[in-house]
Amino acid sequence: MAVEVKVPQLPESVTDATLVSWHKAPGETVQRDENLVDLETDKVVLEVPAPVSGVVSEIRIENGATVTSGQLLALIDAGAKGTAAAEEPAAEDVPAAAPVAAAVPVEATPEATSGEHTDKLGPAVRRLLEEHDIDPAQISATGRGGRILKSDVMQYVDRELQPEAVAEEMPLSPVESAPEHGQRNEHRVAMTRLRARIAERMVEAQQTAAMLTTFNEVDLTEVMALRSRYKEPFENKYGVKLGFMSFFINATIEALRRYPAVNASIEGSDIVYHDYFDIGIAVSSERGLIVPVVRNVDRLSFAEVESTIRDYGVKAREGTISMEDLTGGTFTITNGGVFGSMMSTPILNPPQSGILGMHAIQQRPVAVNGEVQIRPMMYLALTYDHRIIDGSEAVQFLVTIKQSLEDPGRLLLQI
User: Fold this and answer.
1) What domain range includes position 128?
2) pLDDT tens across 109-118, in order?
3) Is the pTM of this model over 0.70?
C-alpha cells in the first residue's frame, strides 16, 4: 500500500520552506519515525519523519525546491522490503532484545556505551557526516545523553581525515593556498533562508521604528563577588553553573515592571502592553543569529533561568531549536561581550520596542568615593522605539538595571 509523505503544517508566520536534503533514495528501506527529509524555514530546520516502515517508492520533490504545507513529497510502499540491504544493520549487530532502530546508532559518552541511548542526529551533524562519509559509530559523542554534536564531528575530521585530504581540499601551506599574484577571485552563494529573513527583519526595523540608543555602564564588582561566593554550592545543588545572564535577566524584569512601555509593542494605531515577561536571548548558531524565548521568566528561579539558557545553547549547537522556541517574545537581550564587543547599538527585534545589549567586562579605572580603583566594568546599551518610549524612560530603565546589578540585594527585595 502506498503511503503519502507530505509537508507538515507550517506555523502561521511561515508560508513555505526549502527542501534541503533527502536521507533516502527510491528503493531504499526506511523505518517508521526515521528522519526522511530536512526542510529549512525562515527560522529552523524541520525534520520530516517517515509515517510508516517500508520502501521509498517515489520522490516527488527534489533538493532545493520550495514547498508549502500539505504538499506531497514522496510515496512509501508500506511493509515492503528494500534492496539497499547494505544500509540496514546486520542481524548479528542488533541486540537480541532491541527492535531495529529507526536512527543510526552512535557511540555514546562513557556512561552510555552500553546502548542505553540512541542519538537523534541533528540536520547539521547529519550533513557533515554525509559530506565526509563518516560512520557515526566512529564519533565520540560529548552531547547530553550521548548525543553527537557538530563540534564532535569537526574534531574527528580535523584529527582523522584532514591529513589524507589536504592535497585536494585544505592545503597546509599558506603559500600553496594563496592566489597567484594579481589574481582576483570571487564566488557567489545563495543566502540561506534564515540569513535572508534576518536581513529582511533588520531592514524592516530600520524602516518602521524610530530607533534610538542610550548607554550606561555598570560596575559588576558585587555580582562577581556574589557569583564567586556561591558558584560551587549553586552548581552542586542545581546541576547548572551560575552565570551572569540570570542576574541581568532579573534586573531587566525589575526595570520592565517599572517602565512597562519598554515591554510593549505597536499594532496599527494601538500600543499593546504585556503583563507577562517573555525574554528573547540572542544566540549565535551555525545558521546565523536566532532568538529563543524564555517564557514567564519572572516566575523562574535563578537555577531555572540558567538551565533554560543552557538547554537553548545545546539546541542551537545541535540545530534542534523548534519553531515554538523562537515564537513570541516581548523584550530581547543580546550579549556581544562573548565575542569581545566593547560597545554596540543593537537593532530592535520587531515588533518589540526594546533590546538590551551587554558587552565585554573590562577592568577599568573608575572613581569610587573620591579614589581611583580598578573595577570590572561593562557598557550597557538600550535600543528603543522612540514612538512609544520617551528618552527619560529609556535612561531610567538602564539606571534601574545598573542599580540592581551594582547592589544585587535589590533583586531579592525588589527595591
Assistant:
1) 112-177
2) 333 333 333 3
3) no
